Amino acid sequence: MGEFELIRNYFAAAPCAQAGDGVALGIGDDCALLAVPPGDQLAISTDTLVAGVHFPDVCDPFLLGQRALAVSASDLAAMGATPLAFTLALTLPSVDADWLQAFARGLNQMALGCALRLIGGDTTRGPLSLTLTVFGCVPAGQALTRSGAQPGDLLCVGGALGDGAGALPLVLNQRTAEASITQALLARYWSPQPQLILGQALRGKATSALDISDGLLADCGHIAVASNVRLSILREALPLSAALTEFFGLESAREAALSGGDDYVLAFTLPAVHLAELRAAGLSVHVVGRVEAGQGVAVFDADGQDVTPQTRGYQHFRESQ
Amino acid sequence: MGEFELIRNYFAAAPCAQAGDGVALGIGDDCALLAVPPGDQLAISTDTLVAGVHFPDVCDPFLLGQRALAVSASDLAAMGATPLAFTLALTLPSVDADWLQAFARGLNQMALGCALRLIGGDTTRGPLSLTLTVFGCVPAGQALTRSGAQPGDLLCVGGALGDGAGALPLVLNQRTAEASITQALLARYWSPQPQLILGQALRGKATSALDISDGLLADCGHIAVASNVRLSILREALPLSAALTEFFGLESAREAALSGGDDYVLAFTLPAVHLAELRAAGLSVHVVGRVEAGQGVAVFDADGQDVTPQTRGYQHFRESQ
Question: Do A16 and A128 fall within a single domain?
C-alpha cells in the first residue's frame, strides 16, 4: 500500500495539478471539485488503454503517457469543448521509479499542451492499464454531436488520414522504413495532436463531428446512423501524408485512410457557407465528400464509380499482431 | 471488436442511462454532457477495482456490480455532494452474457438506489478490472473537505465500524459462521450503503469529513494532517455491530473497527452545537472522540489510558490472503 500511495507524488507534484481556473479543489480529498462557468455544460469522456491490447507490453513510458492523454483529449476536441481537467486511474504490476517518472513526464507534457490539469485518480496494483477521464466546458447547446448532419453539407476532415494505422508495422517492429518516414509516422502514432482549436472553431458551424478513432468509414457510419443521412466520400480527395504514401504506395495508403484507426483527427459535416471563414482563420479543413439523403457510407472514385471497400473498420492493436 | 461494442447494450438499455435532470447528453457520442446547476460545483471521484486485488477472481457479478458503484458513491457522500451520474470503464478477458447481465443488474440496482445515472464509459478486452468515475453537485463553498477540523469539535462516525474487515474471512472462505452473522457481514461487504443523505445533511455543519475506506485510524490520520489537529478516540465509544462482536469477540471487533478497511461509513468532525439537530432528523451520528490541538491520532480507554494500536491501517484484499 505504502509504495502505491507514494506514486501519487509523481503526479501531484506536476504544475498542472494545482487549483485555479475552474478547478476548485485538486488532488488529495475524497473528490475533486470543478467550477463550471455559468452557461456552460461539462463534456466528459472516459477511455481505457490495456497493455498488450491497446499498446505494446514493452514501450517507452514517456510516449505512452503522451498518447494516452492525447487520445482522450481528442474526444473533447470532437465535442468542441474547451479542455479543463482530467483524472488518471493507473494500474501497475509493480512500482518502477524510472518508468513512473518517464510516464509522468509524457503525461504532463501533453497536459500542458492541451491545457488539461490532473485533478485526481487512483493508483492500484494489477496488470498494466490506464483509464483516463477528461473534462471540458462548452456553452450550453453548442456541443458538436453526431446527430445534426444535413443533406447538402460538406463532409470534411481536419488533417491527413491513415498515418495511425500506417505506423502500426513500425510500432510492432514488423517492418522498417527510412528514418524520415519512421519519424513522421511514429510521431503520429505516439503523439497525436488533439484538434482542440479546430473543434472549438466548429461550434455553431459544423452540424456534426467526431474524432476518427475506428477509421473514417466506420466513424462516418456513426454520423450516418445518428443523423439519419448518407455520407458520400470521394476517394481522390482523401488527404494523405507523403510519409504514408511513400511507405505504403497510393492504393494501400488510401485503404489505411478509409479503414485504419487511431488517426485522432476530426471528421465533421459543414454547411458550405462556413468553409472560407474557417480556412481564412488558418484552420486545416479538407473536404472529402458530402452529405446526402439516405443511409450508410459510400466511397466513389473521380469517375463516379462506387469503390466502397468490402471490409471496414478498425483493427485492435492485438488483432494486428 | 464487434462483441465488445455489443456489451454497451447491456448498460445503455438501463433506465438510468437516459438524459434529463442534469444529464444533457448520455451514452453514445464522443462525450457525455452534464448541466451543473448554477451556483453548484461538480464533485468527481475515480476508483479502480482489480480482480484478485480488490475482489476475488471468482465472485458473484451481481454483488460486484453493487459494491463497485457503492464504493465510488461513498466518495460523493464524503463531500456532501448530491449524486448526479457516473461512467464505467470495464475491462473483460472475454464476453460472458450471463456474467454481464448479472453485473449490469447489480450496478443498475445500486445506481437507482443512489440516484446515479450511467452516462458513458469504455469497454475493453484485458484482465478483469473496473474503473468508475462518479459525479455529484454541491453548492459552491459547501463541500466537506478534510481540512477544516477545529479543536473542540466532536469526532463522529455514521454507523457501525469494522464489519467490512470482519467480513473478509467469510468472503475468502477462510472461516464459517452462523447464517445470521454471515448474512449481516457479507451484506456490509458486498452492498455497502453510501451515506449520501448524511453527507448532504452535514453541509454547513461538519468541519471536515471523509468516508472510511482504509480504517478509522488511518483515515482520521488524513483529517489530522489536512486540518493540522490531533484526533482523540475513545475506545469504548466505537459503535460495533452485534454480528461483528459475536463473530470476533469484543477485543478483536474493536481492532477491526480501528484498523480494518472497507467500512464506507462517514467519519467527520462536528461542532457540538449541531449534534442534537442531526439526531432529531433521524440521522445516525455516533460520537467517538474529539478534536484537540496537536498532531496525530490517539486512542484512549475509559480510564484515560493510551491504548493506541501499534499497527494501523488497511490490508488490501490480496494482502489478507
Answer: yes
Residue B38 neighbours by CB distance under 10 Å: 9
* A150 to A62, A269, B46: CA distances (angstroms): 42, 8, 38
Q: Are A106 and A130 in contact (CB under 8 A)?
A: no
**Is the domain of B241 the same as that of B281?**
yes
Residue to substitute from A4, A31, A196, interface B, most B β-carbons within 10 A: A31
Report the chain A residue with the minimal C-alpha distance to residue B266: A30
Tell me the residue range of the domain where A218 lies: 154-315
Domain-terminating residue out of B111, B139, B167? B139
Q: Tell me whether B87 touches chain A (CB under 8 Å).
A: yes
Judged by DSSP in three states, A311 sits in coil
Distance from CA of A77 to the nearest CA of B (A): 9
pLDDT tens digits, residue range B159-203? 999 999 999 999 888 999 999 999 999 999 999 999 999 999 999
For chain A, how many structural domains are there in total? 2
B173 with B282, same domain?
Answer: yes
User: In angstroms, how far is the first alpha carbon of chain A from the final one?
Assistant: 36
- Stated pTM of the model: 0.87
Overall residue count recorded for chain A in this entry: 321
Q: Spell out which residues of chain B touch residue A41, defining contact as CB-CB under 8 Å.
A: 24, 33-36
